[in-house]
Write a structure and sequence with these properties.
heterodimer; A: mainly alpha; 4 helices; 0% strand; flat; B: alpha/beta; six-stranded parallel β-sheet; 19 helices; 6% strand
Chain lengths: 93, 493
């Protein structure tokens, strides 16, 4: 994709982010942070490419290290979000 | 010429499999739905699952399209095993951390996670720099495309700032480092100079892709992250954590530009705006401008004690747990105002028991949360949820502030600055302009506090202590709540 198409997606996604995040209830701002943490680790995509590529050993090991860090975040982030959300209960009537 | 070759020739961003591109787009949309789910606690869990599905799609797609292959084109099983092992190690560490962490320690955990995103972004950018052809961002001669150089420079700078900034935030939140601001002389000059150097070098990087340029940008960025966070005091940590959340998103977006990956770009934009909005909400809740937070220096752990030196002695009314129990059991409406001191004393479970006892006696109990009641956005809500307080009894400042006038009792526990009327009346007060919970409007105010001496972060006295309708309940928050529960169950209504 050329730079302009990618940039367009980026700008539109910023607007989507703006509206979606304002609609998040303040009571869930902590889970919002932990889940954004988990999804920002989609950077693992780059890490996987680096670790699978041949050509530079340093690059590969940097990639593998990044895979470990990103997956700590992914699994930890989703797990802690789920743990928190399970605590939110409605009043028993 | 096959389609792949045409595509890669046309794009300059390497061969993009159209199915893979669609899969990444779907992942990005699932991430949007993950945040959308958080608009209500009822839909939040399903939102979280959307997020997990999106991540699985992104990871599986990448694995399938970038299988490690040997020189002969055969699957390199050792490399594949290494990759899967790396994911496995991360999974175990992540899940163990998520299970063990205490809810009071959430801000530290989030800061630690931010630092990992930052460092992973640096590692990926460095890997892409060292092996650009694998990422499809260089020509046959190994010259990295100009656009990619800018994106890479941005990615590594934001990633490194996120990392070192988050490490400092973690150390401050975790108490390994004092919460007091550390003010270096001439720090504004140093910071601006470093930033200018990073921008300048990134511009130069487009002309010269020598290693020294790349690594100097990296080094300076680590340094600036550190320099930016050390002068920021403990009270401003909610803003800092949100701000670093935002940076971790922009780091992911920058890498998404490098790789031409829509999932990363959408996610980066979402996370970046999320963190920015949360920072804005936190700043507004403290009536602090973003610039003054960044400039630092506000609200150290012990700055308060120093500021409260010469205070006039005013009369105040002490009360006991029995008095409090009696007053509240006779009340119709009670609003509980918890602050971070309540969480520090681990009083949330005792507090919820007190609420339950009161409800049994027919009292209408509500909780009022100030946006900065905890150490990070929404923190107090999580702490109350953990203590089994139903979320529909918990209200945000703007939703409940009007109700204090009808409340018979406002029960303030572990909070101070967020109830201080000086924020409305005293222009000279450091907290002037901050929105507060109007506890002073309630018929009776019960104020649980450790002693009359200590004051909040801002170091200002609170007029509520000395009002006629206020009764000060001095003591440890947890013990006081326990004693009130005992007194309530003893009354036998």
């Amino acid at each position: 994709m050329d730079f302009i198409s990618i940039f367009s997606i980026f700008v539109l996604a910023c607007f989507v982010g703006y509206f979606v995040v304002w609609s998040v209830t303040p009571a869930l701002h902590t889970p919002l942070m932990s889940v954004t943490n988990a999804i920002s680790s989609v950077i693992i995509v780059g890490a996987l490419i680096a670790s699978a590529a041949a050509g530079s050993a340093t690059s590969k090991w940097l990639g593998l290290a990044a895979v470990v860090m990103a997956s700590i975040n992914i699994f930890g982030g989703f797990a802690v979000t789920s743990r928190m959300l399970a605590m939110y209960k409605k009043k028993e009537r | 010429m096959d389609v792949q070759a045409i595509l890669s020739a046309a794009t300059g961003h390497g061969a993009v499999n159209p199915w893979a591109a669609i899969a990444y787009l779907v992942a990005g949309i699932l991430f949007i739905l993950a945040l959308r789910g958080l608009s209500s606690p009822a839909t939040a869990q399903s939102g979280n699952r959307f997020g997990m599905i999106g991540m699985t799609i992104a990871v599986v797609t990448t694995l399938l399209t970038h299988m490690p292959k040997g020189a002969d084109g055969v699957l390199d099983t050792i490399s594949l095993a290494e990759i899967l092992a790396a994911i496995g190690i991360g999974a175990v560490i992540g899940i163990v951390m998520a299970r063990r962490i205490a809810m009071t320690a959430m801000p530290q955990l989030v800061a630690a996670f931010h630092s990992l995103v930052g460092l992973a972004a640096v590692a990926v950018a460095a890997a892409a720099y060292l092996n650009p052809q694998a990422f499809g961002i260089a020509d046959a001669a190994g010259q990295i495309f100009t656009v990619s150089r800018v994106e890479m420079g941005l990615g590594i700078a934001i990633g490194a700032i996120t990392f070192s900034g988050s490490v400092i935030a973690f150390l401050k939140l975790n108490g390994n480092m004092s919460g007091s601001p550390i003010m270096l002389p001439g720090r504004h000059v140093i910071n601006l100079g470093t930033l200018a150097a990073i921008v300048g070098l990134t511009a130069y990087f487009t002309q010269d892709q020598s290693p020294w340029v790349f690594w100097t940008i990296t080094g300076l960025s680590f340094a600036i992250g550190f320099l930016l966070i050390i002068p920021i005091g403990g009270a401003d940590m909610p803003v800092v954590v949100s701000m670093l959340n935002s940076y971790s998103g922009w780091a992911a977006a920058a890498m998404g530009f490098t790789l031409g990956n829509t999932a990363m770009i959408i996610t980066g934009a979402l996370v970046g705006s999320s963190g920015a909005i949360l920072s804005y909400i936190m700043c507004r809740a403290m009536n602090r401008s973003f610039i003054s937070v960044i400039a630092g220096g506000f609200g150290g752990d012990d700055a308060a004690a120093a500021a409260g030196g010469a205070k006039e002695q005013r009369p105040w009314k002490p009360g006991s747990a029995d008095d409090a129990a009696f007053l509240m059991s006779q009340a119709e409406n009670v609003i509980i105002v918890p602050g971070y001191g309540m969480a520090v004393a681990q009083a949330q479970h005792a507090l919820r028991e007190m609420g339950d006892q009161l409800k049994k006696e027919g009292v209408n109990v509500k909780y009022a949360i100030h946006p900065v009641a905890g150490r990070m956005p929404g923190h107090m809500n999580v702490l109350l949820a953990e203590a089994n307080v139903p979320y529909d009894e918990v209200f945000e400042l703007e939703d409940i502030n009007g109700e204090f006038a009808q409340a018979d009792v406002a029960f303030v526990i572990g909070a101070n600055d967020v109830t201080n009327p000086a924020a409305k009346t005293d222009k000279s007060s450091p907290i002037y302009g901050m929105p507060i919970l109007d506890v002073a409007n309630a018929k009776t105010v019960l104020f649980v506090k450790r002693s009359m001496g200590g004051v909040g972060y801002a170091g200002v006295d609170n007029d509520v202590f000395y009002m006629d309708q206020t009764m000060m309940l001095l003591g440890d928050a947890k013990k006081m709540a326990d004693d009130i529960v005992k007194a309530l169950s003893g009354t036998g209504h």
